[in-house]
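Supplementary notes (optional reading)

For those who missed the lab, this is the record we used. Protein: ABC transporter permease. Length: 306 residues.
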Amino acid sequence: MNEIALLIAATLSAGTVLAIAALGLLINERAGVVNLGAEGLMLVAAIAGFAAAVHSGSDLLGFAAGMGAGALLAALSGVLMIWLGTNQYATGLALSLFGAGFSAFVGVEYTQQRLSERSHFAVPGLADLPFVGKALFEHHPLVYGALLLALGLHLFLYRTRAGLVLRAVGESPESAHALGYPVRRIRLAAMAVGGALCGLAGAYLSIIYTPLWVEGMVAGKGWIALALTTFATWRPARVLLGAYLFGGVTMLQFHLQSEGIDIASQWLSMLPYLATIVVLVLISRNPTWIRINMPASLGKPFRPGA
């Protein structure tokens, strides 16, 4: 039972990285912008957050640095895509390549650095409960923050006027523009907020989840987060479900190895990516279902007066 509790705890922690990044990308896509640069954003944020935490000794400053780096890069790419009309897919891929190279270059001197002793978090009173205490109540506050973020985003999108405007911009920017809403500014703001959340996910990865800096440490999580938005049909609650599902698959490989199951490690390492491909293939078998749920103007540029 203790091993199952540890597996559940590891699943929640691993899923938090994917959930925060995917919720940020969901904001982008609800505004009609596809951001394929999540992998690069998370890498730059991971080294920015780790470096800030090393020099300041503060995890909070590390998170702030990661969010700032993610928001800045996302906003810059947003200017290219939204105002200059560059191709969203090509710009996102360029951002991913830039992030991988830039983080590797900047992070050379941090590969041997170590953060100060990590604090052990536990919910008073609940962490001592048998089984559920270790499984659910000994996590970093950001694990619970991801749950609150998903709830807050759901309320924002479906219970507020600002959320309605954001969805309208993603569905029909021409109509939103005709009603007087600054479509391009709204999309740029969505890009910056989404980038900040991707940055937070990257900083959490290097400061709390690992905690260290290794070149390429995001290891495809940005791409999985991007796939999660489609898997979740652009709904925050389903993003959480998908994030924990993929987090569980990721942790399962380590659990199977610890149990001595005779499977080649390469196959176990492939599990999260195979699961992503299988899910996308299954979803793609019903294009009508995707089309109904997908923001109508996703990936389409908008030029006022064009």
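If you only remember one thing from this example: The chain has 13 helices and no strands.
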